[in-house]
Specification:
With about 350 residues, the chain is α/β, with parallel strands linked by helices. The protein is built from 16 helices and six strands.
Length: about 350
């Protein structure tokens, strides 16, 4: 209760999110400063080790149990011809992921990570997959509305999407040390572009990319579609739920919630590419402290992704010209997270090794 009023599920989650622990950050930095190597010779890897210690409140950050959560959703704006692929590909790719045949399956297998698929708002209900426990059912609706003509969803549905993502984090947290975000939804670079333009203040043309590989004419059309959607809906950049409702997607809301839930459990969360970072930006508008648990996995070739990363103030771990999504960059970066922990815990200090330090 707060002032005699019940506390909402979202507010209760926000209240569990605290900044990284300064004392563990200090202990980690002190140890790293004494390792048997020139000062800070492993650069960003050592910075990441400090972050992991601060996030997990541990000098031995647990990172062995890894999970990439793939949020699925469809988008009404695909009717505007913003993607090279038809909307039914969302359903087909969810089945492919469940069968283990997608890019995320290959990279998660290499990283030793589990892949969990969540239906946040696909047109298909995946009845058999849900019954078999292969898809987590959190459906808010069968695809968003076409944001060119009005809000993509109601504000209530936006709240429900974020809450569903938090519920997934709560469900998985007891068995997961490190979360990765992923998504599957044809057309979802278009709402992500709108979110990027609204929350960074940059012109639409500057943050619009080719998504699934559209040509120049399609790119110009996509820019106009995003501009029309923003002009029609006028989302408030100070209100994350308003932005999500008006120009977002159910899976983007789910990603925002997953990140909030991970932070509430003090779990690091590797944020994948453009769509995932749009979700992360929504999460940060809702609760700024969540930023302390975000690790930007990579910088994709989508221009809007770079704009969002700059706004978050986070340096990506990798820059490999990726643009697949699905959580593939997050899975790759899980190897880097494990490496950072090994540096913190396995490399001897000068005193432990009996090596003379620098003057």
């Amino acid at each position: 209760m707060s002032n005699g009023q019940p506390v909402s599920f979202l507010d209760a989650t926000y209240r569990r999110i605290y900044p990284q622990d300064f004392d563990f950050r200090r202990q980690a930095e002190e140890r790293l400063n004494q390792l048997t190597m020139p000062h800070w010779a492993l650069g960003d890897l050592m910075d990441l080790a400090i972050d992991l210690a601060g996030m997990t409140r541990s000098m031995h950050p647990p990172v062995a149990r890894k999970c990439v959560v793939v949020m699925a959703g469809d988008h009404g704006v695909t009717a505007e011809g913003v993607s090279r692929y038809p909307a039914e590909v969302t359903t087909q790719m969810v089945h492919n992921i469940v069968r283990g045949g997608a890019g995320i399956n290959a990279l998660a297998l290499q990283a030793g990570a589990e892949v969990r698929v969540v239906d946040m708002g696909a047109v298909d209900d995946f009845v058999d997959l849900v019954r078999a426990g292969q898809v987590i059912a959190k459906k808010i609706g069968r695809g968003t509305a076409n944001m060119v003509y009005g809000p993509a969803m109601t504000r209530t549905h936006a709240v429900m999407a974020v809450e569903a993502g938090i519920e997934v984090a709560n469900l998985l947290a007891p068995e997961v040390d490190v979360f990765g975000t992923g998504e599957m939804g044809i057309g979802n670079t278009t709402p992500s572009t709108a979110i990027a333009a609204v929350l960074t203040g940059r012109p639409v043309a500057e943050v619009t990319g080719r998504g699934t590989g559209i040509d120049d004419d399609q790119l110009r059309h996509k820019i106009k579609v995003v501009e029309r959607a923003i002009a029609r809906n006028r989302p408030d950049p100070k209100d994350g739920l308003d932005v999500l409702a008006k120009v977002g997607g159910f899976e983007i809301g789910g990603i925002a919630g997953l990140i909030l839930g991970a932070a509430a459990h003090r779990k690091p969360v590797l944020v994948d590419g453009f769509i995932s970072t749009a979700g992360a930006m929504i999460a940060c508008v809702l609760e700024p402290f969540v930023r302390d648990y975000i690790i930007c996995a990579h910088r994709s070739v989508e221009p809007g992704h770079g704009a969002l990363i700059d706004k978050l103030g986070r340096r990506p771990l990798l820059d490999l010209n990726l643009r697949l999504g699905e959580g593939t960059g997050a899975a790759l970066a899980m190897n880097v997270v494990e490496a950072a922990v090994h540096v913190l815990t396995e490399v001897a200090t000068f005193a432990e090794a009996g090596v003379s330090g620098a003057d």
